[in-house]
Automatic annotation (TrEMBL):
Classification of source organism: Bacteria, Pseudomonadati, Acidobacteriota, environmental samples
Compositionally skewed regions (Low complexity) per UniProt: 1-16
Recorded GO CC terms: ribonucleoprotein complex; ribosome
Cited Pfam families: Ribosomal_S11
Gene that this polypeptide is encoded by: rpsK
Source organism: uncultured Acidobacteria bacterium Rifle_16ft_4_minimus_37967
Name the UniProt record assigns to this protein: Small ribosomal subunit protein uS11
Keywords: Ribonucleoprotein, Ribosomal protein, RNA-binding, rRNA-binding
GO term, biological process aspect, one: translation
Length: 147
């Protein structure tokens, strides 16, 4: 407790902020990748589109879920179309991509619409390959649906 007649302690003064040197980020050179690979993974629940360079380094990606589609809407052809268009425009803007070869994987309903979206996004498609993994009698498939 403070003694009688004593004045309250003055608040500590804030020292001036130390001057910092401004750091300038170096602008990355715009890397030009004229050709690449578009990997489209179409599952029953979602569609993923990834564009890589020829070595497999990821340049741009998108998915139906990342675009805000939720639940069963992620598996629709429209969501796959939006994902393909977003990915293609990103690769074209940032890397000046001109052509891709498409590798499609999975049984989903967004396969064709994602391919069409990449093509209409201003990127020429040189080839389309189906890379769906086929088991040599591996895991037991899920039971048949009774609707």
């Amino acid at each position: 407790m403070a003694k009688k007649g004593a004045q309250p302690a003055a608040p500590p003064t804030v020292a001036k902020a130390a001057k910092r040197k401004k750091e300038f980020k170096k602008k990355r050179e715009k890397r030009v990748v004229p050709a690449g690979i578009a990997h489209i993974a179409a599952t029953f629940n979602n569609t993923f589109v990834t564009i890589t360079d020829m070595e497999g380094n990821v340049l741009a990606w998108s998915s139906a879920g990342s675009l805000g589609f939720k639940g069963s809407r992620k598996g629709t052809p429209f969501a796959a179309q939006q994902a393909g268009a977003r990915c293609a425009s990103s690769a074209r803007e940032h890397y000046s991509m001109k052509s891709v070869e498409v590798r499609v994987k999975g049984p989903g309903s967004g396969r064709e619409s994602a391919i069409r979206a990449v093509a209409s996004g201003g990127i020429m498609i040189t080839s389309i390959k189906d890379a769906t993994p086929i088991p040599h009698n591996g895991c037991r498939p899920p039971k048949r649906r009774r609707v």
